[in-house]
Structures are given as C-alpha cells and as structure tokens.
Amino acid sequence: MAVSVYDLDRTLTRRGTWVPWLGFWLRREAPARLLLLPLLLLPALAYAMRLTTRGGLKAAAHRVVMGRRVARARVAAAAAVFAERVVAHEVFPAAMAALAADRAGGARLVLATASNAYYAEAIGSALGFDAVLATPSRWAGDALDWRLGGANNYGADKAARLTAWAATAAPAAALTFTSDHVSDLPAFEVALASGGTAVAANPSPALRALATARAWRVVDWGNVAASLFESA
Known about the structure:
By secondary structure, this protein is an alpha/beta fold. It has helices spanning 18-28, 41-48, 54-66, 72-89, 93-104, 117-127, 156-169, 185-193, 205-214; strands spanning 3-6, 69-71, 108-116, 131-135, 137-140, 143-148, 175-179, 197-201, 217-219. 41% of the residues are buried.
C-alpha cells in the first residue's frame, strides 16, 4: 500500500492557515475580542526572543482570540466554513491535481500539519484525506480548551507522530512525504527510512538547497505568501 503524506501550510496552500483562522474567528464569532489583541504583544515578543515555543504562542493567541473554552458544536460549525473557504481559495490547483492523482493510484492520503486539529481535520476531510496528524486539541467535555492537547506537531514532534501512525496503520508502507519547509527534515527522513520518497513542494530557500543537494524531487505549484514565523 502506498501512503502519500502532505504538509498543509504553504505546501498545499498559498499561505499559512493559523493567522487566517484567528482572523476568521474574530470576524465570524467574536468581533468584540479585537479589543483584546494588544494582549498578544507580550507572547509575540516572548516568542521572538525565544522565551516561549510555537506551541506557547499558539495557546496564548487562542486564549485571547477564542476565549478559555468554546462549545464543540460552535467550533465545528466555524471550522467547516473555514475549511470550505481554504479549499476554494487557498489550495493550489496543481496540489489538488497531485492529491487526485495519488488517490486514483490507490495511495492512502495523510495530512501531517502543525495546524490545530479542530480546524485541520475539517480541511483534511474537505480535501479527502484518510488521516490527519495535527497539533492535538484539548477538550473539556464538549468544550475546546485554549491550551494545546499535546506537543505542537512541528519538526521532530511531527516526525514522531508520523512514525507512530505508520507503525500501526501502515507498517509495511513506503511513505512519500511532501512539504515546503526545511523544518520538516525529520519527517522527510522518516519517509526515506521507510523506502519512500521526499518531495519538496514550493520549497523555502533552505529546503530547495537541501533537495537539490540530495537529488530529491522538487515541484513548484505556485507562489506562497511570506510567513512571519518561518523564514528558512
């Protein structure tokens, strides 16, 4: 069984999804919380100074923008609308064609992303993925908690999640892993160790150099928007 694993932000999409999600939530669900945005200056500064992690910054932003807890049904309804908009306006047509070709070839599709699970799963479902490995959400009964439910699914943590998933769901499969960013090198290594393939899609300069040096496949599906949080 072939397994095709894709990153989300700036791999399948033109830009990241986290900041757009926050903006979407503010416009749709909580416009009054715009007044609280100055509270994000301190955690943003702490992140810039490496005093907190990406996960810490995400949790702080979600507490300010979404509140301490939000009803599951409300989150699900908003995530479904957001996913529909992302698929319609942000996903590269060439990326959609790649997904369709993989699906037609019998590959199992896996989305591996640092995006938060409560909206990443909606995007994955809309795109026809069979599994979504995302940053875990923390639920308190039927309410979404502002804190993360586990490690931010980035870098080595993404590779560990992918390894654990493959060990149980596809132990004999050769993985093809596709991403835009050099931070996913650990996940690329997981795919290569399985006997699979590394694909650099819309690669950052550092990843393009690495892919060229290692003779990995490089595809350019379109121009990506610059990211404040990922510049390599």
